[in-house]
Write a structure and sequence with these properties.
The protein is of the alpha/beta class. It is 39% helix and 16% strand. It is built from 7 helices and 9 strands. The protein has a 7-stranded parallel sheet with strand order 3-2-1-4-5-6-9, sandwiched between helices. The chain has a two-stranded parallel sheet with strand order 7-8.
Length: 223
Amino acid sequence: MKVIITGSTGMIGKGVLLECLDDNRVEEVLLVNRSSLAMEHPKLKEIILKDFSNPSSIKENLRGYDVVFFCLGVSAGGMNEEDYTKITYDYTINFAKAYKEVNPEGSFFYVSGVGTDSSEKGRMMWARVKGKTENDLMKMGFNNALMFRPGAIRPMRGIKSRTKAYQRVYNIINPFWGFFEWIMGGSLTNTTTIGRAMINGIVKNAGTMVLEPKAINKLSKAE
């Protein structure tokens, strides 16, 4: 399969990328980033898109790819609704439309988050915006559209969070992660698991369009 990954400079996107490079089912990976990952691999191509609100300039480069793993995102902390909506909703939907125009049979997998508000009416701004993004993606008629809602995510394979405060927390809790997984009953996940689940989602039946942490973990182990 040929895949497109956005947000590969971030923690989740980098984890998905590493799994794609290691998986024999993935023959080619196109990275679409706002800044270069500066990484070389025989499977790898990269396009710089400075403005995700207008992806039409690279639309033809997206042709022939089976799926988009859309991992681009931003924390809502300190952002107003207008700015958060631009990055979370507008960037995602505009990219999805551009991709679908040249790949009408393509698939689109979106990284959302636990607590996303599918009703679009809740009190939490970020959850409403994520919910609208998910809902509109699922209405676009993709061959396969999966919404990934991870909660607490452990960075694997040497990946670091770009948010320094988050990374400090990871450094503290990392030795105790196994204990947290035990007491949380499988509701935690990690970057490797998300990557494997996304790849499996192309060839396996996920059973649902919206995957909470336990469903992500289950899909990652599908044979």
